């Protein structure tokens, strides 16, 4: 039997936890600049149908292609030029041109109004009372149509025009003829206005065929 000093229970020193964790950072919310009214008109609608399915000509995450795949350019990816006065910058896509105009050329001018500075614009001296209205007007020069119908291939520059067009798919006709007894309804107010003129006694449009009395 080996004799020696009595064994003492070993107790490791206590370790204090770190004062703070460096692994996590507080989340900073993102705020979209601009007024709510402008966001509603300039917002581009999104749809699950606009995202390509994984089964449609997609590349598996396991298989790595041997060479880069080049997809054909869409209309929004064709190089375009900003024709704002004293600008002339070029951009690889229509979307980038629109962002450039919104950030650089959309400041208010005299009288607090917003003026279009596009070359050849017939209303350069007529300002808009809202920034988003001027940006929507610029689309008449750039031919930008960001509001796309999810049921067909048509696209529009204004959200309101897309809303009216979508009724051709849904069959919605909220504009009803106000004449008593006439229950005809239309998808937009313009068509209803044209219809209500058929109830009027006055018919200003006469047939141009010689001898035809119809109006």
Could you characterize what this model shows?
With 215 residues, the chain is mostly helical. The chain has a domain at 75-144: Classic Zinc Finger (Double Stranded RNA Binding Domain). 23% of the residues lie in helices and 6% in strands. It has helices at residues 36-42, 94-104, 131-142, 159-170, 189-196, and strands spanning 80-81, 90-91, 147-148, 155-156, 175-176, 185-186. The strands form three sheets. Strands 1-2 form a two-stranded antiparallel ribbon. A two-stranded antiparallel ribbon has the order 3-4. Strands 5-6 form a two-stranded antiparallel sheet. A hairpin with an 8-residue loop joins strand 1 (80-81) and strand 2. Helix 1 (36-42) runs parallel beside helix 3. The termini are far apart. Residues 20-33 and 46-76 have low confidence and may be disordered.
List keywords for this structure.
Double Stranded RNA Binding Domain; 5 helices; two-stranded antiparallel ribbon; mainly alpha
Summarize, please.
With 215 residues, the protein is mainly alpha-helical. It has helices at residues 36-42, 94-104, 131-142, 159-170, 189-196; strands at residues 80-81, 90-91, 147-148, 155-156, 175-176, 185-186. The protein has a domain at 75-144: Classic Zinc Finger (Double Stranded RNA Binding Domain, 2-Layer Sandwich), CATH 3.30.160.
- According to CATH, the fold-level topology of one domain is Double Stranded RNA Binding Domain
Rg calc: 32 Å
Which CATH top level class of one domain fits?
Alpha Beta
| CATH architectural label of one domain | 2-Layer Sandwich
Distance between the termini: 130 Å
How is the main sheet built?
2 strands, antiparallel
Tell me, rounded to a whole number, the average pLDDT: 73
Helical content (DSSP H or I, runs of 4+): 10-25%
Helix/sheet category: mainly alpha
Number of strands: 6
**How is the largest sheet built, in terms of strand order?**
1-2
Let me know the CATH homologous superfamily of one domain. Answer: Classic Zinc Finger
Protein name: C2H2-type domain-containing protein
InterPro entries: GLI-like, Znf-C2H2_ZIC1-5/GLI1-3-like, Znf_C2H2_sf, Znf_C2H2_type
Family: Belongs to the GLI C2H2-type zinc-finger protein family.
Keywords: Developmental protein, DNA-binding, Metal-binding, Nucleus, Repeat, Repressor, Transcription, Transcription regulation, Zinc, Zinc-finger
